[in-house]
Each structure stands twice: as C-alpha cells, then as structure tokens.
Amino acid sequence: MPSITFFKSEEIAPKSWKICNGFVAETNTFYCYLVEGQDYALLIDTMMGWGNLNDFCKTLTDKPVKIVNTHAHWDHIGGNFNFDSCYLHPRDIALFNDSVNYTKQQIFDVAKQMAKDEFKNLLELDDNYTDSKPMKIFPVYGGDEFDLGDKKIEVIEVGGHTAGSIVLIDRKTRIAYSGDACNSNTLLELPTSLPVAVYMKSLLHLKEFQPEFDMMYGGHEILDATIIDEAIETVAKVIAGTDDHYEAKGMFGTPVFYAAARVKNGSERVDGKRFNMSYVSENIFEKNDTRQIIR
Ligand SMILES: [Zn+2]
Fold first, then answer.
1. Which of 33, 158, 244, 274 could be stapled to 181 by a disulfide with Cβ–Cβ 3.0 to 4.6 Å?
2. CATH number of the domain that 101 lies in?
3. Ligand 1 is a single-atom ion; what residues have CB below 5 A from it?
4. What is the helix (H) or strand (E) element at residue 94, kind and residue range?
5. What number is the average pLDDT over the span 13-21?
6. Does pTM surpass 0.85?
C-alpha cells in the first residue's frame, strides 16, 4: 500500500527549499519556500493546509520559523494555522479574514479532490487538517526587510492580483519569491484585484529590482526574470486597447478576457511567449476614487 507523502522538498539554493505536497496530481501545483538564515528561517507562503507544515519545517531547519504570505489567497495561507502568527501586507488583511472560515472538513474535501488516484482513498480526516482560525498578523510594507542574520530578504509591493501582493527578494541567492504577482496565468479578473493600470505601475516598480534577481519562484510556477518584460509589454497593450482581448471562462464561470490569445484547448500563448493575464473590461483604468469603501 503506498504511504501518503504530504510534503516533498527540494533545495533550490543553499539552505533555501521549495516545498510542495507530494500526494496531489501534477496538474495541481502549489509551492511554498523555506529560507534558513543564521538567526531564523523564513517560510514564504504555506499552501493549502494539507499536512502539518510546522512539523515538516522542523525536518529541514532547527531555527525558529517566521511566516510571510505573498498575499492572502487560501492556497497561500492554508498552512498558516499550524503556526501562531504571520506577516502580511495590510491591504490583504481583509481578504485574509474573509478566508478564515474554512473548516477542517472542507480543507480535507479539496485535498481528496486534488489527490492522485492512488491516494484518494487513503486520505482520512485526521490531524493532517485543521480548522482555520483568526491569528496574529504583523504588517509588512514595501522596503521592509527580513534580516535572517546572514541573509536579508526585501519586501517589494506588487499590487494587482490582490491589493497587498508582495514579492520577496533574496539578493544573496538572486531569487525573487513572487507568489502570484506575475506569471503565465496572472489573475486580475477577481473582485479584489486592482485595476490593470495600477498593476502596470507595480510591474514598473518590480522592473527596477530586476537586475538583482535571476529567477522568480512563484506559488504555482518557476520563471526567469525576463517574464517581467513580457508582462510590461502585454499589459501596456491592454491599457492601449490593442491586446488580443481573448475571451475565456474565468474562475467563477463568468466571461473574462486574456490579454494574449491562448492555444485551442490549452493555456499557452499562441505566440509562444509566457506571460498572460486575465481581466474584466470594467477594471482596466484607475478609478478617480481610490478610497477603501467598507460596506
Ligand atoms: Zn492568488
């Protein structure tokens, strides 16, 4: 009988690991990252909440672990609840609190759905799942730095996918930990996404740091830093109204547009480039009123 591998890790740079769930089908890729320094280790995102990530981190490091979330979507905060605090950009705190209503049963059900066939019936509703709960959130802003002792990791604000999305740069290893900020399926179609024109400003801000990293290790994909150039080129076309305006079904089943045309029955770009972004026509331009309205 195969045993369930909740976590797999791979050392991507000295004392820096990519972690994923071992039992899920290859099409469901969720990554988080652990970077160990002299004084403490930084866990960047926590995936879906399947297995005890706190226990797993102890197999990789004996340093204390701090958590930072690149943004507050469930597939990046699910494992937070095995810990007692996290760092997050304040503009994503509301989104975080909205996510904190998942029960152990719901988290387990999704695990079962996404598991490889051979593991589906082996999964049980046990201590590998935990109810989500409110937790202590410490704010981080652009320019802040996690000083791990012998490594410094800087926070860059790249709002778009969510208002509080951040990218974390480790200059020593030339890695940017990028969450969902810029990839081949950057979702800006969501009700909590920022306007495309604001995202463009974030990309230009990220571009300033591009000389300092080679790779972007994201929540679902690993890309090299030139993806930022493709992003700027593609997003500029959306703002100019000259993009491919490719109609597709969005996350919630409603029609959305992709900036670049995709191949039939696939998600790759027709022109062979990698960056792509979903959006809705009502959320391209900056609003005159950018206040947060609490309803
Ligand atoms: Zn996300």
1. 158
2. 3.60.15.10
3. 73, 180
4. helix 93-99
5. 97
6. yes
